[in-house]
UniProtKB/TrEMBL annotation:
Single GO molecular function: oxidoreductase activity
Keywords for this protein: FAD, Flavoprotein, Oxidoreductase
Protein name: FAD-dependent tricarballylate dehydrogenase TcuA
Entry keyword annotation includes Nucleotide-binding: no
FAD-dependent oxidoreductase 2 FAD-binding domain ranges (all copies): 8-436
Keyword Coiled coil listed: no
Entry-linked InterPro entries: CobZ, FAD-dep_OxRdtase_2_FAD-bd, FAD-oxidoreductase_2, FAD/NAD-bd_sf, Succ_DH/fumarate_Rdtase_cat_sf
Needed cofactors: FAD
Pfam families (alphabetical): FAD_binding_2
Chain's gene name: tcuA
Length: 481
């Protein structure tokens, strides 16, 4: 069956980037249909679980203190990605983040000051009132009011292409939906565990690391259209093993555990692996700039398991996860409780404690509490673990989204052999690898999705002769180099 309505812009996906594309295209006067693979109750993709948006700002704003200028934002991105980023596209994201909040507010998104436990990002990140679910619901309400047609439980298996041009989408049920242009914003392949297993392969111990991965977000991001586009010859970017990969509670569900399963006390204590040994600097940098490397670190350890160890001094200094930690009154007792070799664990903690040097502890800055002569070191916030109760949280790799995606530019156009498609565009996780070659810093995924969702929606509308002068003027300022 073929549907051949007068659809100017077909948006495939149902999360933040897809909604930003649909709203922007509709504001320009285009007719828009959005296809969401999930049922209505599970709509929104990974955006359901987000909390905030990283924002450039030169002066204090309503929920943002001090300033966070373009160069600092760029340096933060350059640092966490180790230079694996397209600077031009990254700066577009940064600049757009300074201008997007009024537009978001017009579409029903509300912001709030950060809650206790997240105050150290009050300068860089604007938090959503009600979290990601409230943001997604606001956008869907706005889309309905503007006349965007939304269809749920409509996964797309493939596209009909004429060379580099989009013709129609073919759903899993066989329905063919034609449109003048299309925006792909249907996520990465994080919930496709078979693809994860293929990408990661085996390690030197003969293990399949991906078999122990947990998926923090939606089960519907299986990468079906990403795989199709790769087979169709679209230009790609990124490493299939690179991802927003967080150390989360090992007791979390396989899918949709979300933010509440993240373990945020890593920088306040030490982390040991199955052999009861430390393996990385827990105090390397502020937690929002380093939390997304810890899933990958744990993925590389034996059995893809580790434990975050703290004592009484850390309690109350971090956002507690949904599951309580294992407690004991002695280090030896804690080793026994979590099944680690007692002698090795006690030695690891004793060696760490002896290496801690006195300083002025302050978790809101890069303080002078460090270790001396310890490998790996703990660079900041190094306090002895010597005050009971002692607490352990089990860690597994939690995959949020993958970085393998489609190569694009400021137009958000899909490319084939370097040639831009005139009517096929990409946004969100499907192109995030252009900005994130590796690493992560809190809130930047929403910055990318919001920026390129709007870029893609505007480009799609422009391709059918529609435009929004106000947004075009805004884009001219964002793109001015």
């Amino acid at each position: 069956m073929t549907r051949s309505a007068d659809i100017d812009v077909l948006v495939i996906g149902g999360g933040n980037a897809a909604l930003c594309a649909a709203l922007t295209a509709r504001e320009a006067g285009a007719t828009v249909m959005l296809l969401e693979a999930a049922p209505r109750a599970w709509r929104g993709g990974n955006s359901m679980h987000v909390r905030n948006l990283r924002c450039m700002h030169d002066t204090p704003q309503d929920v943002l203190v001090e300033s966070y200028p373009e160069e600092e934002y760029w340096r933060d991105l350059e640092k966490v990605t180790a230079g694996k980023t397209d600077e031009r596209l990254a700066r577009l994201v940064v600049r757009h983040s300074a201008r997007c909040r009024p537009w978001m507010i017009r579409h029903g998104v509300h912001f709030q000051p950060p809650l206790s436990g997240a105050l150290h990002v009050a300068r860089t990140n604007a938090f959503f009132m009600g979290g990601g679910k409230a943001l997604v619901n606001a956008y869907y309400r706005s889309a309905a009011a503007l006349g965007v047609e939304v269809r749920y439980e409509t996964p797309v298996d493939r596209l009909d292409l004429d060379g580099e041009r989009f013709v129609a989408a073919v759903t899993a049920s066989g329905e063919r939906i034609a449109a003048k242009t299309c925006v792909l914003a249907c996520g990465g392949f994080e919930s496709n565990l078979e693809w994860q297993r293929e990408a990661w392969g085996t390690n030197e111990r003969g293990e399949w690391p991906a078999e122990n991965f947990l998926i923090r977000g939606t089960r519907f991001n299986r990468g079906t259209l990403l795989r199709f586009m790769m087979t169709a010859g679209a230009d790609t970017i990124g490493d299939p093993t690179q991802a927003h990969c967080v150390a989360i509670d090992a007791r979390a569900p396989l899918y949709d555990g979300g933010i509440c399963t993240r373990i945020d006390c890593v920088s306040l204590g030490v982390v040991v692996d199955r052999d009861a040994r430390r393996f990385y600097d827990e105090g390397e940098d502020f937690w929002p700039k380093r939390y997304a490397i810890w899933g990958r670190l744990v993925a590389q350890r034996p059995g893809q398991i580790a434990w975050s160890i703290i004592d009484r001094k850390a309690i109350g200094r971090f956002m507690p996860p949904v599951f309580e930690g294992t407690r004991a009154d002695t280090i030896a007792g804690l080793a026994h409780a979590i099944g680690l070799d007692e002698a090795t664990f006690c030695e690891t903690i004793a060696t760490y404690n002896a290496a801690c040097r006195p300083g002025t502890f302050d978790h809101t800055r890069l303080d002078d509490c460090r270790t001396d002569g310890l490998a790996p070191p703990k660079t900041h916030w190094a306090l002895p673990i010597d005050t009971p109760p002692f607490v352990a949280y089990p860690l597994r790799p939690g995959i949020t989204f993958t970085y393998l995606g489609l190569k694009t530019d400021a137009t958000a156009a899909v490319r084939f052999g370097g040639r831009e498609s005139g009517n096929l565009f990409v946004a969100g996780e499907m192109m995030a690898g252009n900005v994130l070659g590796q690493g992560y810093t809190a809130g930047v995924g929403m910055s990318i999705g919001t920026a390129f969702g709007r870029f893609a929606g505007a480009s799609a509308a422009r391709a059918v002769g529609r435009s929004n002068p106000a947004f075009e003027e805004e884009m001219a300022l964002v793109c001015a180099f």
